[in-house]
Amino acid sequence: MEPRRDADELGVYVHVPFCSHRCDYCAFATWTDRGHLMGAYVSACLAEMERAYCEGLAQASTVFVGGGTPSLLPPALLAELVAGVRRQPDAEVTVECNPESTSRELLERLRDVGVNRISLGVQSLVPHVLDGLGRRQVPGAVARAVELIGEVGFPTFNVDLVYGGAGETDEDWRATLDAVLHLDPAPPHVSAYALTVEAGTPLARDRARHPDDDVQADRYVMADEVLAAAGLSWYELSNFARPGHSCRHNLACWRQADFRGFGCAAHSHAAGRRSWNIRSIDRYVAAVANGSCPTAGEEVLSRERQALERLELALRTSDGVPAECLPATPEMDGLVERRGDVLVLTRRGRLLANEVTLRLSVPGTTLAHLG
Ligand SMILES: C[S@@+](CC[C@H](N)C(=O)[O-])C[C@H]1O[C@@H](n2cnc3c(N)ncnc32)[C@H](O)[C@@H]1O
Ligand code: SF4
Q1: d(Cα 97, Cα 122) in Å, to the nearest integer?
Q2: Domains of the chain in sequence order
Q3: Cβ neighbours, 10 Å, residue 35
Q4: Percent of the chain at pLDDT exceeding 70
Q5: How does pLDDT run across 200-247, given as a tens digit for each residue?
Q6: What is the pTM of this model?
Q7: Whole-angstrom Cα Rg for the chain
Q8: If you take atom 27 of ligand 1, which residue's CA is the nearest one?
Q9: Which ligand 2 atom is the nearest neighbour of the CA of 19?
Q10: Closest ligand 1 atom to the C-alpha of 122?
Q11: How far, in Å, is the centroid of ligand 2 from the Cα of 19?
Q12: Whose C-alpha lies nearest to ligand 1, atom 16?
C-alpha cells in the first residue's frame, strides 16, 4: 500500500517541556521546576533549527508546537519559537495551550506569527473527575479560553478530552461531551482519549484509580455517538472533526510523511530512519550550546517493517487498508466494512482495533521474520 502524501510534505514538531503542575496520569517529557531555563531552552531549539536549515531541511507543510505546556512560556518567547520554523505559505500551524495559561496577549501574538490552529487541553469539565485525574483546574478557565480563541480569530481549534478517570460516571462523561459541544464557539475538532496507565506515574502506583476496559469501551461508544450527532465524525480512533477540520499534521504522521522534531525528547522520521533527541532539558540545552548533536538514538526500519507500520497506522484511520491486507474470515465480520477497495473499521472494530491489527499482513510477504 503506498502512503498518500505529497512530495513536499514535511511535518515539524517542537517540544516545550514546561508545566506548572504534573498531572497524575502524565508521562510526557515535562518538568515543573525548570522555568528558569525557558529562555535558554528556546534559544537551543532555535539553534537546532538553524543547523537543520543550513543542512537543507525543507519548509514545513505542517507545524505542531506541543508539550508540556507551550502556553506557559512568556508570549513573546513562544512567538519567537514559532517564528523560527520555516514553513510553506499555506502551512497548518498548531500550538497546544492549557486553559489557565491562555491569555488574549498570547493568542494575539500566536495569530500574528501565523498560528492558525489551537489545541486546548481540557480533559474533563467535571471538577471531581479532574481531581481523580490529579489535574489542577481553574473554574471558568476553559470557557474563557475558548471565547478568546473565537475572539482572536483562529480558523480552527481542538479540544482534548480524556475518559475513564477515577470516579467518572457515564453521566459525568456525557456532561463533559455536552458542555464541550455547547462551548462558544463550539470546537470543530475533538480528541477523546481513553485514559492510559503510563509506567512511573502516580496513577500507575494507585491501582484503585486504574480504568476498567469495559467502562472505557462504553465511554468510547458514547463519545462516538454524541460527537457524530453533532457533526464531528471519526477520522482516527480518538479523533473527531467537522468536514475540513481534521488535523493535517497528525494525518501526515499517520500516513508516514517525513517529520522532524526539535527540542528535548522530540522524535523525527525520514525515509525509514527514526531518531529521538536527548530527554532531559538540561542535557539538551548543554548539548546544543557546545555544538554537539542532541540526537540520543536512532533506528532504521526495514522496508517490510515500514510497510507493516503503514498498514497499522492506516487501519486506525478512516483511510482504511487495502482489502487484501486482512483475511476474509468470519472472525472479521462486523469488525471491518468494505468501502470500494479498502476495509475500514466499524465502531465495533474500532473497539477491538488491536485485535484486528494483529491480523494485518503486507501482500507478498509472510512477515514471519519480523519481530
Ligand atoms: C502532550 S499532552 C499535553 C497537553 C497539555 N499540557 C494539557 O495537559 O492539556 C496532550 C494530550 O495527551 C493526552 N494525554 C496525556 N496523558 C494521557 C494518558 N495517560 N492517557 C490518555 N491521554 C493522555 C491529554 O488529552 C493531553 O491533552
Ligand atoms: S497532562 Fe499536560 S499539563 Fe498535565 S503534566 Fe502532562 S503535559 Fe503537563
Answers
A1: 9
A2: 10-253 (3.20.20.70), 304-371 (no CATH)
A3: 14
A4: 96
A5: 999 999 999 999 999 999 999 999 999 999 999 999 999 999 999 999
A6: 0.95
A7: 21
A8: 121
A9: 8
A10: 9
A11: 6
A12: 26
